[in-house]
Design brief:
With about 160 residues, the protein is mainly alpha-helical. The chain has one domain: Up-down Bundle (Rhomboid-like fold), CATH 1.20.1540. It is about 65% helix and about 10% strand.
């Protein structure tokens, strides 16, 4: 979870962690976020081990654990927006709902993961680790979301009418 295969590998992992990680850490708290991150990385490893065609090839990178952060983000911040760079016939930055961005990302992982698993298309990317981490992050974030809802202060009616 802490090794990387090159400068671009670590750059894109850190970019996603920078964009989504701080909010998820705020929701979990520092210590629980560390445990959450490790659990997502382990779930990612299990997802990869269950689907790999060649278990002798080692995997490296934080992508599975960071995918858990993305899964938690979609659960904890479903109405958030992210600034997204669009590269087409033009270059622009647009603000889009994080839900759309993350669902699109997840569908890409499923698509490419399916190619590697069912059609045995070779890849250097452990797509099923991404999927395993993402799902684990979503499930773990549900516990935080429930706790956050319970902790919301109740404002009495007589105070609400004066606000």
């Amino acid at each position: 979870m802490f090794l990387h295969g090159g400068i671009l590998h670590i750059f894109f992992n850190m970019l996603y962690l920078y964009i989504f990680g701080d909010n998820v850490e705020d929701a979990f708290g520092h210590g629980r976020y560390f445990i959450f991150y490790i659990l997502c990385g382990l779930a990612a490893s299990v997802g990869h081990m269950l689907t790999t065609l060649d278990p002798t090839i080692p995997t490296i990178g934080a992508s599975g654990a960071i995918s858990g952060v993305l899964g938690a983000y979609i659960v904890l911040y479903p109405k958030a927006r992210v600034q997204t760079l669009i590269l087409a016939f033009f270059i622009t930055v647009v603000s889009i709902p994080a839900v759309f961005f993350l669902i699109f990302w997840f569908i890409l992982q499923l698509f490419y993961g399916s190619l590697t698993l069912w059609f045995e298309v070779p890849s250097e990317t452990a797509y099923w680790a991404h999927i395993g981490g993402f799902v684990a992050g979503m499930l773990l974030a549900l516990t935080v979301r429930r706790k956050r809802k319970r902790l919301k202060p109740v404002i009495p009616d007589y105070v609400r009418t004066q606000i």
